[in-house]
Amino acid sequence: MEVQEIERLIKISKERPLMPETYIPWHQEPEADDIFLPEMLTSLHGLEIYNTLTATQKLELGRHELVQVIASYAWGECLFCLFMTRHILTLPLDDVEHRFLLRELIEEFRHQEMFGQTINKLGGKPIKQTGLHKFLGHFSNKYLPADYLFMGSVSVELVTDVYGDYARKSPHIYPVLKKMFDLHSIEEARHIIFTKSLLKTYAAKAGYIKRTLYSYVILFNILFVRTMYVKKEIFERIGLENPDQVFKVAAKNFKQKFSEKCLDDIIEFVDSWRGFNKATRWAWRRVLGAKV
Ligand SMILES: [Fe+2]
Ligand SMILES: [Fe+2]
């Protein structure tokens, strides 16, 4: 990436910071017809069982699942911050990449604080990650080389951004959430520009095996994110009978929905450096239901 272009991104970050404290109308309470998550993104929408829910149950389903989305975002960004703080130590302080990553860290910390405040505002109770999620998160953060972690992080950013875009563009979304997603989308756009171009240089040098590995790292990161949203406890909370059974159909339903609505950008990215090949394509189809 051109040094000038990175300087431009740093300049915007400094001169036009979006402060969650003032950008988000925290004082505003939800109105009677406000929603928390577009219906079609909830895990049960599209299934027969969804039509049997009361209006309150539908609203609550959206609230609890949205809280999961935000909590997962925050957790993922926190892990990425851990990595970035270690990575900048390897770069000289005056290096333009070092300076950009400092701006990114500042913004990501603000985001995490904003996510936490939003969850409080919604009276949310995030369900903790599974042991496997925790293990994989910490393991990859500790042992994977920088290029792989950047691959993982850009995939999470691209996928979750789509999610935020659906939410902020949907009518009747609670204004606090709309502004939260607006802010996030604007600042993440800069991170994505930087990360994508960084990765182009990595990918340009990569041979078949490395591109295959990158592709798998991305695939697992997406799977990782996707499986943090749909939770059995939520079906218990909204008073459904047979939460176990509901969970099974909901997970399947959500997998299909996720593959249809959230994967376009990441597929385009992976395709741009030929990350789909004989060794990876089948896994993308099978694990993520991706049309590649
Ligand atoms: Fe962020
Ligand atoms: Fe970011």
Structural class: mainly alpha
The number of distinct β-strands equals: 0
Number of domains: 1
> What is the CATH superfamily label?
Ribonucleotide Reductase, subunit A
Distinct small molecules bound, one entry per kind: fe (ii) ion
Largest sheet: none
CATH architecture: Orthogonal Bundle
Strand content: under 5%
Description:
The protein is mainly alpha-helical. The chain contains twelve helices and no strands. The two termini are 28 Å apart. Bound molecules: fe (ii) ion (2 copies). The site of one fe (ii) ion has 5 residues, from helix 4 and helix 7.
List the SSEs and their pairings:
Blueprint: H1 3-15, H2 20-23, H3 55-88, H4 96-121, H5 131-143, H6 146-169, H7 175-205, H8 208-226, H9 232-237, H10 243-261, H11 264-272, H12 278-288
The protein binds fe (ii) ion (2 copies).
One fe (ii) ion (FE2) is lined by residues 108, 157, 188, 191.
TL;DR?
The chain has 292 residues and is mostly helical. It is built from 12 helices and no strands.
For this entry, give a set of tags:
globular; 72% helix; mainly alpha; 292 residues
